Amino acid sequence: MSIYKLLLLPGDGIGPEISAEAEKVLALLNEAGVARFEVERGLVGGAAYDAHKQAISEADMTRALEADAVLLAAVGGPKWDGVPYDLRPESGLLRLRKDLGLFANLRPAICYAALADASSLKRDIVDGLDIMIVRELTGGVYFGEPKEITDLGNGQKRAVDTQVYETYEIERIGRVAFEMARKRGNKVTSSEKSNVMKSGYLWREVITALHKREYADVKLEHMLADALAMQLVRWPKQFDVVVTDNLFGDMLSDEAAMLTGSLGMLPSASLGAADEKGKRHAMYEPCHGSAPDIAGKGIANPIAMIGSLGMALRYSFDLPKAADAIDAAIANVLAKGLRTADIKGDAPSTVSTKEMGDAIVAEL
Amino acid sequence: MSIYKLLLLPGDGIGPEISAEAEKVLALLNEAGVARFEVERGLVGGAAYDAHKQAISEADMTRALEADAVLLAAVGGPKWDGVPYDLRPESGLLRLRKDLGLFANLRPAICYAALADASSLKRDIVDGLDIMIVRELTGGVYFGEPKEITDLGNGQKRAVDTQVYETYEIERIGRVAFEMARKRGNKVTSSEKSNVMKSGYLWREVITALHKREYADVKLEHMLADALAMQLVRWPKQFDVVVTDNLFGDMLSDEAAMLTGSLGMLPSASLGAADEKGKRHAMYEPCHGSAPDIAGKGIANPIAMIGSLGMALRYSFDLPKAADAIDAAIANVLAKGLRTADIKGDAPSTVSTKEMGDAIVAEL
Ligand SMILES: CC(C)[C@H](C(=O)O)[C@@H](O)C(=O)O
Ligand SMILES: CC(C)[C@H](C(=O)O)[C@@H](O)C(=O)O
């Protein structure tokens, strides 16, 4: 039986609560002999800062590099608003992405039929929605240098961030998008601001050439990022796979997730490049944040977290059947009417984090 | 009677058609003796490129600098996809913004009650929506240097764009937002990515200090740009004035405009700083684009263009009554059921660009 090392980073806010439910699923998978998951626990974000004044410790970074996959819940919260910039909770997350080389962030925006009415959009606009946003995650304005604030005197400061993309970075994320599209609706929408940004101009050029060279069978369209932000609201079902840079991907994937009315439901995967042996670093996290306002109340929705474990089974451990089983279990508990507070809608009552987790385990 | 010089730049696509309707309104204002508007016409965008291989000619730039206000319809279209980067249609618009010093872009997102059902969002989410997005327009990644593509050899290129903000730029746009809020709902939401970008960090710092120093009576909240992209979809009525940078403002204002279902209805104003005499450069344009797909068909909605003229009367010519009259005329024709194709909804029939323009003139 295969042995897999999983690093669990519950992080901040509701992170520990929803992580506990994912651990129940892991325990079940171990019991059922699907594989042997050896779970280590670490700290990231504010939790790590509180423990050792770093948003992730060197020891945990080493564990992350050695793990077969990282499962991260969420980081951040107002508690750490005052910490120095380089130590803020998010820097732990960004370091993980960068040092693990997780350039491909897959963010599905799926509208669960049972939840279509929870959306602020009309039912027919979102029912059946299934978009995959492929976001570049280790480049762009998140990491480009210079990135600094200079004191100019006289009370004036100057802040600079740098958006940088090289051809190979655009090509490798483009490949992920085209490959993904072939397994889905066979359409890729590439988004940038080529009318204003040189990086957008290069982005369009590289994606166009890659398409022509290797993926001419996939339908490709280009859409400016502002137009895409609009079209997501107008008629989101026009999209299949969307590929875009780090910053646009951040905003567009959040917007797309909110369209579905199912934010607490959406997992994500961040993948690195495969080495000679086909091994690659990977991290899985819910699309939602740490929700400090409801932390500790036992009412958070654990589904995105359990779904993220499902994505790990699919993309890191090649256990598609187990992943399908998790997806089916989630669909079943929803069909039975179980709702956490965030997806209440017209449901007569809601269940707790723990009850939702237990119900999914029972289905499995 | 005051004499005002207005430069009309119809631009591309549907621009000329909707400009013609705005000219009818101008003629009426002249006839009625509201003021004397001397209208000059110029070229911008693809139209300017076709005429003299520049996205705006030096002569028209001079006219723009001398005018009391510029009224621009729209630029761009697939026809000019192949023109050199520095001559593309958008560069004419960007040059106007930069050389006229139009740092403050006001983009209202208003949902007209008569059109609430045209939105893809549920009626109760958008009915009565009235947000003012205050977008910084002459800084950030649009204009920062370096902005270049370098050939690295081996088929590799490197593209760089630079996001730069200085304290004074953030302060002056912040002031516009706070002043605006005082005349409206008294609330400002400032948006950036301070968790990732140094410019966002400075932005938050400067807005916070300005608020404390001069605008403590206005409610201020900070919201990360990705969270704002989400919240606009979830519950847009939580916002009054939103202040943000050039790039985030581009996306968020488009998203907000689309929420209303009234995109063809929304005007915008771009304002410079006032000189000693209280004079400032200003440009007014519809929020929508050049819509090349429907250009020349006579079906475009002229309301955003006429509304932009209304904004000019309000912000550049201090003619609030005439501006109110235009707004009322627009509301009246809508109440009477007149609809262009873009806002058809359940309307039994639609009117042409010309019919809509004539109806508004008749109301006036
Ligand atoms: C927490 C933050 C740094 C992060 C980002 O901006 O990438 C988050 O918004 C996300 O989308 O994962
Ligand atoms: C046409 C383009 C350069 C422009 C921008 O990006 O600012 C447009 O999208 C806008 O919002 O006015």
Automatic annotation (TrEMBL), chains A, B:
Coiled coil: none
Swiss-Prot/TrEMBL GO biological process terms: L-leucine biosynthetic process
Magnesium recorded as keyword: yes
Pathway: Amino-acid biosynthesis; L-leucine biosynthesis; L-leucine from 3-methyl-2-oxobutanoate: step 3/4
Cofactor(s) named in the record: Mn(2+); Mg(2+)
InterPro entries: IsoCit/isopropylmalate_DH_CS, IsoPropMal-DH-like_dom, Isopropylmalate_DH
Binding site for NAD(+): 77-90, 289-301
Annotated binding of substrate, by residue: R97, R107, R135, D226
GO MF, one example: NAD binding
Chain positions recorded as Mg(2+) binding sites: D226, D250, D254
Residue ranges annotated for the Isopropylmalate dehydrogenase-like domain, each copy included: 5-360
Primary location class: cytoplasm
Pfam families in the cross-refs: Iso_dh
Ranges annotated as spanning the membrane: none
Keywords from the named record: Amino-acid biosynthesis, Branched-chain amino acid biosynthesis, Cytoplasm, Leucine biosynthesis, Magnesium, Manganese, Metal-binding, NAD, Oxidoreductase
Catalytic activity from the UniProt record: (2R,3S)-3-isopropylmalate + NAD(+) = 4-methyl-2-oxopentanoate + CO2 + NADH
Cofactor note: Binds 1 Mg(2+) or Mn(2+) ion per subunit.
PROSITE patterns: IDH_IMDH
GO CC terms: cytosol
Residues marked Important for catalysis (site): Y142, K193
EC number: 1.1.1.85
Cellular location(s): Cytoplasm
Assembly description: Homodimer.
Family assignment from sequence similarity: Belongs to the isocitrate and isopropylmalate dehydrogenases family. LeuB type 1 subfamily.
Role played: Catalyzes the oxidation of 3-carboxy-2-hydroxy-4-methylpentanoate (3-isopropylmalate) to 3-carboxy-4-methyl-2-oxopentanoate. The product decarboxylates to 4-methyl-2 oxopentanoate.
Protein name per its UniProtKB record: 3-isopropylmalate dehydrogenase
Gene: leuB
